[in-house]
Design brief:
It is a single chain. Strand 11 and strand 12 form a beta hairpin. An eight-stranded mixed β-sheet has the order 6-5-9-3-2-13-16-15, with no helix packed on it. It has a four-stranded mixed β-sheet with strand order 1-4-8-7, with no helix packed on it. It has a three-stranded antiparallel β-sheet with strand order 10-11-12, with no helix packed on it. Helices cover 29% and strands 29% of the residues. The protein has ten helices and 24 strands. The chain has three domains: 40 residues; 281 residues, Sandwich (Immunoglobulin-like); 138 residues, Neutral Protease Domain 2 (Neutral Protease, domain 2, Orthogonal Bundle), CATH 1.10.390. The protein is α+β, with helices and mostly antiparallel strands. Bound molecules: zinc ion. The site of zinc ion has 4 residues, from helix 5.
């Protein structure tokens, strides 16, 4: 048939189809093509649409510990969080989050994770969308089908104060937390939904813009580079850009009055530390060697993965720190001036997470040891660097004795229970696994393994099997029995090279 006839034929079919789907409204979520602009478009795009069906995106990503976290059917590229905090004492705020995403299937509806607030409007591609809420699941039904591979935007407007939320994983408050004098965000693993609508799983990493407006004299600090500070008279707007892909739980917004201290590592990584104004000098000391740490870990693990780094101290006495990307946060209790050595280790721990946890992210929360054991072992590596190999060996002996004694309170590193994700099994026991691996394959192979693993999965996600594969590839050794005994056995494995045994 001559091409012209084909075109006419398909245009005819297209018109019938558009009329039909238009009449049936949204009863069956049939895919409707965008209005064709030329006959060629019709010819190439119409035939597949005859079979295409649109389905709701699944309300979870099937994580093995937290199956409902995250959502399927789309992939977020960028979040823009515009938060105007009207009252710092209650965190009463007006928020607009704009999500730029791409559909990974034909979507009739999709879910976001979002807790609390009053939602005033949701727009999809600038058109009002319907929505329903059930606990943290926010189901959005756009006016038309979103086609596979096509980009789309979601704008969610909301207001209220973030509610207190309990994590499924840990018995302390998580998410956006208001305290006397300010607020902070500490979301691992499931608190991000407490302040923005999100695909809340590390599998869907994205870049972020934060536009935070606070009343004078408060200031805001978030991940990434401070691009602009706008004086609006009674309020100030802080604009941050985080240009490297980031897992949702690593997004942080902190409000207080800060002393900002900027510097640079010798290797050239910019550092900015946010201390609550008036924080005593001795509580800033644990951060004094951050530049050296960045350069040392860059030697060991590969170049520092992000644009800048820094620490933020929360003006609150409770025990928590988090490796929030490019800006780790530390409560005051974690940087106790009476424990200078321990405090410096916490600083090393959160920094090491920038490579292991942030740049290389989990694909499943069950593999949390890939974050925590690596960051814990980095504390030992910092001890070795600053105080010598004997001190590292001493550190390992103490850790071994601790795990042996407290064994009952821990899970094997590779099998954490969902309600005690951060038990010491994934920190101390797993760190011993890494030291044992080092003795098993030798220093050269061991550090080559860490570098190769980081290089291969930087800005992405990895599972335990990926790390084991790298370890075997680099060392040339078969290591499945080794890792089984360290990650999944109920018994603490021996470290023969040091004469350490569980009995
Ligand atoms: Zn950690």
């Amino acid at each position: 048939m001559p091409p012209l006839k084909i075109s006419r034929f398909y245009i005819f079919i297209a018109i019938i189809l558009i009329l039909l789907t238009g009449c049936r409204a949204s009863a069956t979520p049939t895919f409707t093509a965008a209005a064709p602009t030329t006959p060629t478009t019709v010819v190439t795009e119409l035939p597949p649409t005859l079979e295409m069906k649109a389905e709701p995106g699944a309300p979870g990503l099937g994580d093995s510990l937290y199956p409902h976290l995250g959502n399927a059917g789309y992939d977020v590229q960028h979040y823009t969080l515009d938060l105007t905090v009207n009252d710092v004492a209650t965190s009463d705020l007006e928020g607009t989050t704009i999500i730029e995403a791409r559909a990974t299937q034909n979507l009739s509806s999709f879910n976001l994770d979002f807790i609390g607030f009053e939602i005033t409007t949701i727009l999809v591609n600038d058109k009002p969308a319907e929505f329903q809420r059930s606990w943290q699941e926010l189901t959005v039904t756009p006016p038309g089908v979103l086609a596979e591979n096509e980009p789309f935007t979601v704008e969610v407007q909301y207001q209220g104060s973030p509610g207190e939320m309990d994590s499924m994983a840990i018995q302390i408050q998580t998410g956006w937390i208001t305290f006397d004098g300010g607020s902070f965000v500490l979301s691992e693993p499931d608190g991000a939904a407490s302040f923005y609508p999100v695909n809340d799983h590390p599998l869907d990493k994205a870049t972020y813009t934060f536009r935070v407006t606070v009343p004078e004299p408060f200031e805001a600090a978030a991940n990434g580079v401070l691009k602009e500070t706008i004086d609006n008279g009674d309020t100030t707007t802080f604009l941050f850009e985080a240009r490297d892909p980031m897992a949702s739980y690593l997004a942080t917004v902190n409000i207080d009055e800060f002393d900002l201290e900027t510097s640079q590592s010798e290797g050239g990584v910019p550092i900015r530390n946010y201390y609550p104004s008036g924080l005593p000098e001795e509580m800033r000391k644990p951060f004094a060697r951050q530049g050296e740490m960045i350069d040392y870990f860059s030697d060991l693990f590969g170049d520092y993965p992000f644009e800048l780094y820094g620490a933020l101290v929360i003006d609150l006495e409770f025990g928590a720190a988090l490796e929030t990307q490019t800006l780790s946060i530390f409560s005051k209790a974690m940087i106790d001036a009476n424990q200078p050595e321990g405090s410096e280790q916490v600083v090393a721990h959160e920094l090491a997470h920038q490579w292991f946890g942030d740049s290389v992210s989990l694909a499943d929360w069950r593999d949390i040891w890939l974050n925590e054991s690596f960051a814990t072992y980095a504390q030992g590596l910092w001890t070795e660097h600053t105080r010598g190999r004997e001190e590292l060996d001493e550190w390992v002996r103490r850790l071994y004795a601790f795990v042996r004694e407290e064994r009952e309170s821990m899970s094997p590193p590779g099998e954490p229970p969902g309600d005690r994700l951060f038990n010491q099994g994934v920190y101390s026991w797993g760190a011993l696994c890494l030291h044992a691996l080092r003795l098993e394959v030798g220093d050269e192979n061991f550090f080559d393994i860490l570098k190769t693993y980081h290089e291969r999965f930087a800005d992405g996600n990895a599972r335990t099997a990926d790390f084991i594969a790298v370890a075997e590839e680099v060392s040339g050794k078969e290591l499945s029995a080794f890792f089984d005994s360290w990650l999944y056995s109920e018994e603490l494995a021996p470290i023969p090279g040091m004469g350490l045994e569980a009995k």
